[in-house]
Amino acid sequence: MDEEYDVIVLGTGLTECILSGLLSVEGKKVLHMDRNDYYGGESASLNLTQLYRKFRPTQSPPTELGRDRDYAVDLVPKFIIASGELTKILVHTDVTRYLEFKQIAGSFVYRDGKISKVPSTEMEAVRSPLMGLFEKRRAKKFFEFLQGWKDDDPTTHQGINLDKDSMKVVYEKFGLEPGTQDFIGHAMALYLDDDYITKVARPTYDRIILYTSSMARYGKSPYIYPLYGLGELPQSFARLSAIYGGTYMLDKQIDAIVTDDEGKFVGVTSGGETVKAKQVIGDPSYFGAGTDGGKVRVVEEGKVVRAICFLKHPIPGTEDSDSCQIIIPQNQVNRRHDIYIAMVSSTHNVCAKDIYVAIVSTIVETDRPEQEIAPGLSLLGPIYDKFVDITPLYTPTSSGENDNIFITRSYDATSHFETVVEDVQDVWKRVVGSDLVLKKREVEVQG
């Protein structure tokens, strides 16, 4: 292998595949390698056999779950926000031609022991049990303020400066109750914890506007999801890369990352051969995660626990939705982090008919992770089978600009892709030296 590449990409997780696709479109010569024989890495969608092999190597899947090929079970559950950054990337690259999307039927929040729908229209807001009558009026004024805000028109600011005042100041101005702040901050702005309240209000404003504009786009919920599971996303970006000359090698063991005397990246050795390139991008598992190599470290919040559950019924209290997101805000269950539930079904071609796949996840806070997701599991009703996975969260220790080794971050506990895209944008800027700029078009979604 005497060929030299511009970039070698290690791992076919979504982050890596988006980057290889975008770099190929830019005219870079890309070689993409993965030790697995399937696409998706940590963010793959597995069939039944692969799923049982991963979690219970000695057990065959029960026959009553149906055919192997009917399943595409996500290891990392995330939904796509209709007006969000991932949608923009899908549209910009025209990757949408390889994918079909379906809406997620509803977004719910847990409050005072029960599940309530996050209101998607004025009418739903008026009927919502989440707020009392007077609180509904205050919330209406708050949302009207957000929708009416114009940066260049001080008459719309009501004495608030989004770039100086904290979110606490904004909530207090409208007199919103803690419970309302809870569902706005966690179910709409999608924050994992309450740290945002003491920070400037602008990012929260942006997140709420993103949520409400996504909601307005397709109705029922702000989320869309690809048919046949999230594993379709990395595969689609791999196709994009291939069209622009990218080379893919699956099932390739990576023996060594080769550097020169100064520690700068030179190439990758696989099966006794070394391929050379100017830069390498890869997921943390290729850079000595857990060793003292010093390239990656575990983030403060340490680990994510996820439970993949097979159900034979929709989740109770969700209006028999064929798919939904439920957020349990942390202070409802005396935690520091929210618990997320993402559910999909045969409507999305990810499991057999009459089976539902619900995944409960959160950031680990104690030495008993499975107990931490118990409040989420208890909302699911009878569970037919479940697989629990605890994964460390890694982040790179350096920018990569000195050694040309660019490492992506692990997938967090959020139930959407906005943080993944932040990582893509961050790595892109470090690799290319300029911001990622995207074009705007529309995505088609099945009803």
Automatic annotation (TrEMBL):
Q: Does the keyword NAD apply?
A: no
Q: Which Gene3D superfamilies match?
A: FAD/NAD(P)-binding domain, Guanine Nucleotide Dissociation Inhibitor, domain 1, Guanine Nucleotide Dissociation Inhibitor, domain 2
| Keywords tagged on the record | GTPase activation
Q: Name one GO biological process term.
A: small GTPase-mediated signal transduction
Question: Annotated Gene Ontology MF terms?
Answer: GTPase activator activity; Rab GDP-dissociation inhibitor activity
Q: Name one GO cellular component term.
A: cytoplasm
What's a Pfam family in this record? GDI
Name the SUPFAM superfamilies on file.
Answer: FAD/NAD(P)-binding domain (SSF51905)
The similarity comment for this entry is: Belongs to the Rab GDI family.
Identify this protein by name: Rab GDP dissociation inhibitor
Whose protein is this, by species? Pholiota conissans
Its lineage opens with: Eukaryota, Fungi, Dikarya, Basidiomycota, Agaricomycotina
